[in-house]
Write a structure and sequence with these properties.
Blueprint (H helix, E strand, L loop, with lengths): L7 H11 L4 E4 L6 H14 L3 E4 L3 H13 L4 E6 L2 H4 L1 H10 L5 E6 L7 H9 L20
Parallel strand pairs: 1-2, 1-3, 3-4
Helix pairs in contact: 1-2, 3-5
Amino acid sequence: MKSEILLGDEAVALGAIHAGMTAAYSYPGTPASEIMEYLIKISRRDRTFHATWCINEKVAFEESLGVSFAGKRTMVSMKHVGLNVAADPFMNSALTGTGGGLVVAVATTPACTVPKTSRIAATTRILPGSSVSSRPATRRPMT
């Protein structure tokens, strides 16, 4: 196996590729931009999946959700405030469900001044089948 040194965002992208992702969508915004930049670079070389920028986070989420409805694995990435832009399709996807796998990668910076607020908001948006723990003993404390 070939060893590579990757940024965390690149590792997220590579994990999605290895999991069989067929499409990825994003809106440019640091720190999530590196995920899509890496995916676009690989997709141009391999041509095994589709990776593209969208006009905003809502469109990116809807594009990804559409691919999932078709039974394919997909990923959408955005910065943490972009999830507010994509809130309508994000919340409604809890009602409609997905057909294939849908990974929502939301990135924030370590120096973010509102991590507690973001994590409180995240607990109100737990989707069926999501990896957010519903057991209080396994949750990270909100400090």
